[in-house]
Design a protein that fits this description.
heterotetramer; A mainly alpha; B alpha/beta; C alpha/beta; D mainly alpha; A: mainly alpha; globular; C: alpha/beta; Rossmann fold; 2 domains; 13 helices
């Protein structure tokens, strides 16, 4: 009974959030004269998109590190696989020549979208269907490729313990990066060059026949996909398998003695986490509108790991919350630290380029040292409970 | 009735140290059998060999008449091998199941130093032990395809907790329970895997005499109720003499005596090697 | 309780910051009455920070020189708005939308093509024109109507250098070394190879992994393979490393470098050695005496500018390019007759401007029409650049 | 032939420099079971200090000063970022290490303005020498010998002094040593002091040879040194040194393979592949001791 009520309020919460995002995105068209932040081009939406993408990756990493107790640092590598899978599948045939200009075209001369375009048509509603459908298929395939690689990598490395596993997965991510940058594979990966020209979030904006945007969905789409994925992860965590993961984290020996196949469950968690990291990577490619191996360095993994820690290891809502705070701080709110500022006639000392990142890393250290449980610890935000609290307050008043 | 468990020439050697030396013993079905010996005698190592935590260097273990573990020393281990019978199993296939496979066959255990899942509630601790028998795949679990199965697991867990008198604590963290109840919870968790053979590793460690007496009754009860065979390691002589049908005594990895409680109690070797130490342990 | 407090704090912080952002945004929009803002989209952290800062320097100097523009009888103050794109494609979109959010009229930058390609779609979406200063990858402007650039392209530069190698050294065998996964390096190497091999030469292409510091193996390889020239279109830090190590190995094969090597850091490394270094570049010191003197005074008078320039007053070509870019922007604003971004975008294709780096005009794709590059050589005795020749590509032969 | 010698020479010198960093990793890991991700960045900071001090002070003053301040930095990092987390799970400490690394890199970017800095010429070490027809710097020749001397000194220290004995005891069993009255904090500090001092010396050698320093200059050598430490068997000093030399030489050989194979880009990837292979087949490394879990 309780369980049902909980999931019901979660569904409501997510739908409200998604509706809110659509509204927020289109509000400037409805009510003119709003401040700059609400304009569709404001950094608010860029930050929201990036945070949505990162939160999926952070939650997927949390599934592995927080819920299964496997310290893996390969997330950037799996994102890379996802991003490239999506990009390679989705560059339209007529753009390939331009994108792969160094290599005289791509090894595959068609794309998923072209194939589906033949089925449903390329313009109007048919075009929309083929675009959406091919994006979805490509996203799922992106996850699958990452998952399959995770399986192959997992066979040797999942037998390793904590730090060794971390360093081995980090190593795998670096190896993958070197392979994808190899000029000899240029026909497929475009070597060092970025792959671009595939559909991005903006492609989901609905336009009228003259090309004007009628309804903006470019922030809504990542939110939708990401919430869907996170819901799936949460369902997994709350299932029998999720509990088995947690038992592996708490005590491997006891878990094994109680009939839980360690290797199988670790592998399961690793593959699933990588699947979603792959989807996250594909979404990341959509966000930056390109795919280039250079972006997927170990620094990216560290960033995501820090987000997980700030949010609380073992808390999904913590990870999500932390991602939004982290991305907004690092990419938006703290930007003023990078340029000279005057308060009255006084020039604030120290402020110049690069200062933002110094402050930011100090903040991170403070959190790691003094709030080692993170924002949420291992608790979750419970929408139902929050609502109840509000209700109680109202009653009191 | 046959033997639930049979060890034959089991030797476990770590580098140059022989922890279990050529141990052979039988645990008949539906009985309570004890394995005793002073500290460091190799009792827990023997348990670990049975449950698949370690792979014995040499020997054979049978469960319900079927071989489940079998090994013989090879390579480096063969050169440094100090035990006996190294040729006996040479021509037979090596069997080395993982602990979860052994649990799946119907052997469950508890641990000397309680190993409950710390971040989880009493209810969850028992529920997870049901996982291996659950009829669901990851997909059906995620998409809630088989809610009936989940409900069945929860109901069974609840029933088990009620039987053990742990139901009132079900939403508390396992580690917050008093020591004696943690022991009991560990046994309940082991029962949740539906074992035929239950291995108890020092179930009375850290208990006062009153609790120990209760424990003896409890072990007898569950043996009867779940139609189990019980094989236990214990230091508490009172408990061992009270509940065991048969006792094996080991020291330095080798068997030094066996028999019904009265026989063992009066055995010269046992008194020499063991009882002195045991009394010390009791005096602690 | 502690948890709740933490959440509360986080939420308050979040809302506070959003409000700040909102207030800042709207304030900026309101203040545009007599100010026109030009966005500076450059890296000041990350791998390309060094080049980015020098480019900014040129813009800042130009801004102090001409801080206003007269449009339609009214004098507007020009304000430069900085956004650090962090040299990485994942930070670039948010930096771009930061500029869009600050309501700038057009954007200058960036140093480095990858970030320009990642930020480009944001500018396009916002209908904001961007003028690339030294992003030389063909894909920056291709497929993006809103991106222009005033520099030449990779293929042109490679072409120039290949011709120079054959003209000056009658080179038959060239050893090319680039960073793995860097589209700039690999692009230049690939084009160089095309031209050089078409003319009957032999090219040995090699790549080194990112963050590599030991180049002795590569240099020895070049030597033992009997290369006539070594082409190293790498970024500044690597170039410096290569020069230092080539010196200790006593390499007497001439080095060819692209525009990135035109940097006083690299120059410093060759001082007092027997190395032969030739670079192709946009600007040669001495090209405009007024500019040279002005920028040197500017650098010497400001300690921050001095640091940004690497501690001395040698003029980098990118600084001259930044300077020219600023004036091209002013021309565009004048031609548009207002600070309106759409009008400016429409005006840019027709802008013609004679800058210190040569005359600038745009072709149909938005690239600068340039048919010459300067080749200069490092004068190792005095530690300065010496003018070698003006080199044209094979198309002009 | 000349080519082979030059490749081997640079391999040995790279290996020697990795060795000095690797010792820091292996000591710290041996005692705290912590991959000190910030160690590579301490190495980078030592390099930067070298640049800033030699700009104003004579070399004879500035180099010892670099070593002293690096030691101080290592000590402070341990006290500020690791000590408060002694009771915390291992993952938290490792994350703290990543945080310190992040902080050091960002601060370095801020201070240097992201410019690649030039390491000064150090008399004698920087001058070139001709070995069997190949030119190289003296530092390349000196490094392996200096490493051997330092390692010898270090093993003497560990085997024959009280601190050394305490270090060995702590690395064998943390809790028991604590119960036996060993002052754990002192031992750990001593470890960090030794590690940082070696990193400082390593930085002088490394950057004399490869004089451009960027804020990320420490990351790659750091990671490779760690791989070397794992390769040799973590906790074992001779293991770390041999591992470092092996990795250094392998890496330069791969870089030196014919260009037509186009495999030199995989020199880093090779290091990691080697690491994974070692971890899978011989997790305790070449000279490490196998650890058994007590059940």
């Amino acid at each position: 009974m309780k369980q049902k009520k909980k999931s019901f309020s979660a569904v409501i919460g997510i739908s409200v959030l998604l509706l809110f995002v659509i509204l927020l995105e289109n509000i400037s068209a409805l009510i003119p004269g709003l401040p700059q932040v609400f304009q569709p081009t404001s950094p608010l939406f860029t930050v929201l998109k990036k945070a949505a993408v990162y939160s999926l990756v952070a939650v997927s990493m949390n599934l592995l590190n927080g819920f299964t107790g496997l310290f893996s640092l390969g997330q950037a590598g799996f994102m890379l696989l996802g991003a490239y899978t999506y990009a390679i599948l989705m560059v339209p045939a007529d753009q390939k020549e331009q994108v792969y200009y160094l290599f005289g075209g791509c090894a595959f001369d068609s794309s998923l979208m072209d194939v589906l375009g033949k089925l449903f048509g390329t313009s109007g509603a048919g075009g929309a269907v083929s675009m959406i459908l091919s994006c979805l298929i490509a996203l799922i395939l992106a996850g699958c490729v990452a998952g399959v690689f995770a399986y192959l990598i997992g066979i040797p490395v999942l037998r390793l313990k904590s730090d060794y596993l971390a360093i081995a997965t980090l190593g795998f991510a670096e190896i993958l990066r070197a392979i994808f940058q190899w000029q000899k594979l240029g026909k497929v990966t475009n070597g060092a060059n970025m792959i671009k020209g595939f559909p991005t979030f903006s492609s989901f904006n609905i336009t009228n026949s003259s090309g004007q945007i009628v309804l903006r969905l470019s922030t809504f789409v990542p939110f939708l996909i990401v919430s869907l994925c996170i819901v799936l992860i949460v369902l997994l965590i709350n299932s029998s398998y999720g509990r088995a993961f947690k038992s592996v984290r708490d005590d491997e020996v006891a878990a094994e003695a109680m009939g839980i196949n360690l290797f199988r469950h670790k592998m399961l968690s690793f593959v699933i986490s990588s699947f979603f990291a792959g989807v996250g990577g594909a979404l990341f490619a959509m966000y930056v509108a390109n795919a280039q191996a250079k972006a997927f360095t170990s620094v990216m993994t560290y960033e995501i790991l820090l987000i997980v820690v700030i949010g609380g290891i073992g808390s999904v809502s913590g990870s999500v919350l932390a991602t939004f705070l982290y991305v907004a701080c690092s990419e938006w709110w703290l930007r003023f630290l990078d340029s000279e500022q005057y308060i009255g006639g006084f020039k604030v000392p120290l402020l110049r380029n690069g200062f933002r990142m110094v402050i930011f890393s100090i903040v991170i250290m403070v959190i790691v040292l003094f709030f080692s449980q993170g924002i949420m610890g291992s608790n979750e935000i419970n929408i139902g409970a929050l609502l109840n609290r509000f209700k109680k307050k109202e009653r009191k008043q | 009735m046959g033997n639930a468990l049979r060890l034959e020439n089991v030797t476990m050697q770590f580098g140059g140290v022989v922890s279990v030396n050529n141990l052979s013993l039988e645990v008949p079905e539906k009985k309570i059998i004890a394995l005793i010996g002073p500290n460091g005698a190799g009792k827990t190592t023997a348990f670990n060999c049975i449950t698949g935590v370690y792979q014995p260097t040499n020997g054979l273990i049978e469960f319900m008449g079927k071989p489940i573990v079998r090994n013989h020393p090879t390579g480096k281990a063969a050169k440094s091998y100090k035990g006996q019978n190294e040729d006996k199993y040479k021509n037979e296939a090596v069997l080395s199941p993982t602990p979860d496979e052994i649990t799946g066959m119907g052997i469950a255990r508890t641990f000397q130093n309680i190993r409950l899942w710390k971040s989880m509630t009493v209810f969850e601790n028992v529920l997870i032990a049901k996982h291996q028998h659950a009829k669901q795949t990851v997909f059906s679990a995620v998409f809630r395809g088989n809610l009936a199965e989940e409900k069945r697991m929860r109901d069974e867990t609840m029933a088990l907790l009620e039987e053990q008198g742990l139901d009132i604590y079900k939403d508390e963290l396992a580690v917050s329970l008093p020591y004696g109840l943690q022991r009991r919870l560990e046994i309940a968790r082991a029962l949740a895997t539906k074992p035929k053979l239950l291995l108890l590793d020092e179930p009375a460690a850290g208990m006062n005499p009153q609790e120990t007496i209760e424990l003896a009754d409890f072990v007898r009860q569950i043996r009867k109720k779940y139609d189990l065979t019980v094989f236990l390691i214990e230091h508490h002589m009172d408990l061992v003499m009270n509940i065991s049908d048969y006792i094996y005594v080991i020291d330095f990895g080798s068997e030094i005596a066996r028999g019904i409680p009265e026989e063992v109690q009066n055995n010269k070797h046992v008194i020499e090697a063991y009882l002195g130490v045991a009394e010390e342990a009791e005096n602690e | 309780m502690k948890k709740i407090t933490a959440i509360m704090m986080a939420t308050v912080l979040a809302f506070g910051m959003t409000a700040c952002g909102a207030a800042g945004g709207s304030g900026a929009a309101g203040g545009s009455g007599d100010t026109i803002k030009i966005g500076v989209f450059e890296p000041s952290t990350g791998d390309s920070a060094s080049g980015g800062k020098k480019e900014i320097l040129g813009m800042q100097y130009a801004n102090t020189e001409t801080p206003t523009v007269e449009v339609g009888g009214k004098t507007y103050k020009i304000e430069l708005v900085m956004a650090d794109n962090g040299s990485s494609a994942d930070k670039a979109p948010s930096a771009a939308s930061e500029l869009v959010g600050k309501d700038v009229s057009l954007v200058l930058g960036s140093y480095g093509s990858g970030v320009s390609m990642a930020g480009g779609p944001k500018f396009e979406e916002a209908g904001l024109a961007a003028i690339g200063v030294t992003c030389t990858n063909p894909n920056v402007t291709a497929g993006n109507d809103y991106y222009f650039r005033i520099c030449f392209l990779d293929n042109f530069q490679a072409d120039v250098l290949a011709n120079f190698a054959m003209d000056k050294f009658s080179a038959k065998k060239a050893y090319c070394l680039g960073e793995n996964g860097n589209e700039y390096d690999q692009g230049l190497v690939a084009f160089f190879k095309q031209v050089f091999e078409a003319a009957g030469g032999e090219v040995i292409a090699d790549s080194f992994p990112t963050n590599n510091s030991d180049f002795t193996s590569y240099l020895n390889k070049a030597k033992s393979e009997g290369a006539d020239v070594i082409f190293t279109p790498v970024s500044i830090a690597y170039a410096k490393q290569i020069m230092e190590q080539a010196n200790s190995l006593n390499i007497d094969i001439p080095f060819l470098g692209s525009d990135t090597l035109d940097d006083n850091m690299v120059l410093e490394a060759t001082k007092g050695t027997n190395l032969k270094l030739y670079v192709s570049t946009f600007y040669q010191e001495g090209g405009s005496e007024a500019f040279d003197k002005g920028i040197k005074d500017y650098i010497n008078s400001d300690s921050n500018a001095m640091t940004a320039n690497g501690g001395n007053d040698t003029i980098s070509a990118v600084t001259a390019m930044g300077y020219d870019a600023y004036y091209v922007a002013l021309e565009a604003i004048k031609a548009a007759g207002s600070g309106d971004k759409a009008a400016i975008k429409a005006a840019i294709p027709n802008v013609k401007y004679d800058g210190v780096s040569g005359s600038i005009a745009f072709d149909a794709v938005g690239d600068a029409v340039r048919d010459t590059a300067y080749i200069k050589t490092a004068d190792t005795a005095s530690g300065t650049w010496a003018f070698e020749k003006v080199q044209t590509g094979s198309g002009n032969k | 032939m000349e080519y082979v010698i030059s490749v081997l020479l640079s391999g040995i010198s790279v290996g020697g420099q990795y060795a000095l960093i690797a010792i820091g990793y292996t000591l710290v890991y041996g005692i705290l079971r912590l991959i000190n991700f910030a160690h590579g960045d301490v190495f980078m900071v030592a390099g930067l200090m070298g640049i800033y001090f030699t700009a104003t002070l004579p070399i004879s003053v500035s180099l010892p000063l670099v070593i002293i301040l690096t030691v101080l930095l290592g000590f402070t990092i341990e006290r500020a970022a690791y000590k408060p987390l002694r009771e915390a799970p291992r993952m938290s400490v490792m994350i703290s290490a990543i945080g310190v690394s992040y902080l050091l890199q960002n601060t370095a970017t801020y201070v240097t303005g992201g410019q690649p800095m030039t390491y000064p010429d150090i008399p004698f070490l920087s001058s070139t020498v001709n070995v069997a027809g190949t030119h190289t710097k003296w530092v390349v020749i000196i490094t392996p010998f200096l490493v051997l001397v330092l390692v010898f000194a270090l093993t003497q220290l560990i085997n024959h002094t009280k601190v050394g004995m305490a270090m060995r005891a702590v690395s064998k069993d943390f809790e028991t040593s604590m119960l036996m009255g060993i002052r754990i904090d002192r031992v750990i500090s001593a470890t960090f002091v030794i590690g940082s001092a070696l990193a400082a010396i390593g930085s002088i050698l490394f950057f004399t040879n490869y004089p451009a320093i960027t804020p990320t200059a420490g990351a790659m050598p750091g990671l490779k040194a760690f791989v070397a430490a794992v390769f040799g068997g973590i906790g074992s000093i001779p293991g770390a040194v041999i591992g470092a030399f092996l990795i250094g030489i392998c890496e330069t050989i791969i870089k030196g393979l014919p260009s037509s194979w186009d495999v030199s880009v995989f020199s880093d990837a090779f290091t990691f592949a080697l690491l994974i292979i070692i971890l899978v087949f011989k997790p305790q490394g070449l000279f490490g001791e196998a650890a058994t879990d007590k059940v």
